[in-house]
Write a structure and sequence with these properties.
Elements (H helix, E strand, L loop, with lengths): L6 H7 L6 E2 H8 L3 H9 L6 E2 L5 E3 L1 H15 L4 H28 L9
Antiparallel strand pairs: 1-3, 2-3
Amino acid sequence: MPPEKTPIADALDDDDYPAYTMGRAAAMLGTTPAFLRALGEARLITPLRSEGGHRRYSRYQLRIAARARELVDQGTPVEAACRIIILEDQLEEALRLNEEMRRQKNVPTPDDGS
């Protein structure tokens, strides 16, 4: 029987747990705190705040920031990169919902040959 998880272990496994300080997040991404602040100002990611008011980032937010960095490194302005990511996310959600509705109605998907 596997050992029970502690609340700390649960938090570490949670992609939404704000485990990373701004400095650590910037170092992990190979960028600057100013870049992370710019993503916040563009409302791409909204870090949680510690009791002392410091920004804290989750793994999920770091993945989004990494995608933004890829686009910026390719020459895309920060604001445009943020908009692209938001649109990509909206498209992914719409496709997911469409697939879910098709399954509920037993409608064949375009790629299953029906």
